[in-house]
Write a structure and sequence with these properties.
Layout (H helix, E strand, L loop, with lengths): L1 H10 L2 H26 L9 H25 L1
Helix pairs in contact: 2-3
Length: 74
């Protein structure tokens, strides 16, 4: 499975590979940011905890949706 993924990755053009890597970076960024909002208690701005959890869950769900979109493109 990994060999097939690497072979299809090598067949893509340079711009497609760049956007693929950029998509993975933003996927990780959204997931880390969502986890940050949920787990960190002392934020420099005052947001109620329930709103932070809702926003964090939205970011994590969005990162999961982006993950499946990236996988589906292959």
């Amino acid at each position: 499975m990994i060999k097939k993924f690497i072979d299809t990755f090598k067949e893509k053009s340079l711009s497609q590979r760049f956007f693929f890597i950029l998509g993975i970076i933003f996927l990780l960024l959204y997931f880390i940011l969502g986890s940050f909002f949920i787990l960190v208690e002392n934020l420099p701005f005052d947001i109620p905890y329930t709103n932070r959890v809702i926003f964090g869950v939205i970011l994590i769900v969005y990162s999961i949706i982006r993950f499946f979109r990236i996988i589906k493109k292959d």
